[in-house]
Amino acid sequence: MQDIWGTVTGEYVVIKALDNGVTIIGLTRGKDTKFHHSEKLDEGEIMIAQFTEHTSAIKIRGRVELLTRHGRISSGD
């Protein structure tokens, strides 16, 4: 049986929209990177995203404040 504990405890990021219409796109792992999920956030909305066995990257369009274990990042300044 595959150990799923590592999948469940993957890295989290907190994304806070600073403008309306921020787009968040999840990208897949594997040989071919593809979009697998997208969300739209309006100003002040927060999303908590997780890297998993299926999600290797997150693409963000728009002004956001991003909080990770590596620190706080603001886009579009």
Automatic annotation (TrEMBL):
Extent of the signal sequence: none
Lineage start: Bacteria, Bacillati, Bacillota, Clostridia, Eubacteriales
Subunit organization: Oligomer of 11 identical subunits arranged in doughnut-like structure.
InterPro entries per record: MtrB (IPR000824), Trp_RNA-bd_attenuator-like_dom (IPR016031), Trp_RNA-bd_attenuator_dom (IPR023558)
This protein's name: Transcription attenuation protein MtrB
SUPFAM superfamilies: TRAP-like (SSF51219)
Annotated ranges, domain Tryptophan RNA-binding attenuator protein: 10-75
Organism: Pelotomaculum isophthalicicum JI
Gene3D superfamilies: TRAP-like (2.60.40.50)
